[in-house]
Amino acid sequence: MGHVRGHHIVRQQEKGQVWSAAALLGLLLSAVNPVAGAAGIAAAETAQLKFSREFEQEADFLGLRTMSTAGYDPHAMGTFFKTLLTEQRINPAGVPAYMLTHPVTEDRVSHVETTISAQKLKTPAGRPAAAIELPEAQAVARAIADPPDVVIPRFRRLAEEKPDDAERQFLLGRVYQTVGQLEAARGALEKCRDLGGLGGRVDRPLGSVYEALKEPAKAREALERHLTKHPDDAFAHTQLGKALSDVDQGGAALTEFQRALSLDPDSEEAQRLTGLALGRKGDEAEGFYHLALSSRLRGELEQALSQFQQTDRRVTPGSARQAEVERAIAELEPLVRERARERQERRRTGRRGFGAR
What we know:
Distance between the termini: 55 Å
Largest sheet: none
Shape: globular
Radius of gyration: 29 Å
Order of helices and strands: HHHHHHHHHHHHHHHHH
Number of helices: 17
Structural class: mainly alpha
Mean pLDDT: 84
Helix content: over 70%
């Protein structure tokens, strides 16, 4: 955003004519003297990079003001640059620092801190530097990206250092849940609940864990408690529907799935579970329809086409639903044919290649 506000692309292009001439001169020189030619090209590139670094400082200045005005902590930019600088040192790109188009150096970090001090930038009053959900999002991201034998000991150690810290137990439970260790997740999340539950934040993941462990009564209790405060949570409605389905409350489960869909029509799981629930209820047309939507959301186009065709055979003729289904079929048929043609071509090419060997 800072680069855009500074019109850097236009200004770079205006200077680019001079650099292009210098680079062209270098190419001509290289035909006579390769060493001199290389030096000419390098000089042109270095001049352009120097100009770009000036833009970087200007963009940092503009970006800092934008960040603080929007409610972000301006000091976070310097912290982020320090992280990048450490990564650059540990995993060097293999090129000289002056050849980097966006160099991260101690000077750039210092410039950010000087700008913050000179401009007296700070996070506006009443705007938190980070939402309370940020540590949870970071823990889940680490659990997804890092090996379990790395991420679990890290969060377990933090929880053991302060066993009465509800937040640390909560983060450990979310890590366990993300890597699929559900019994361990239940233990940590229940401990968080017993320590206060973070104002009810623990109920959503704990209810989901209970549902996965096939403890529907506990799942229902936790999820209903969460939905009392957060009625627009589509995921929680889906999980509650699954818990109700586990105790043969099909009608109540269908209601929860449909509530989830009204909040998030693109939920593949809610579409699929709604389709299954409607099928069990005897409404095959709507059941196949929602199964088709679920398959289409997953990218399983052949299955989606088949399920839309099943819907078309059962839906009321002339209804709005039939018109919608026929449009979906018309859109999917050429895509499915093309996929089939590509698979056949790959098989044919593969057999030919094998025979040639």
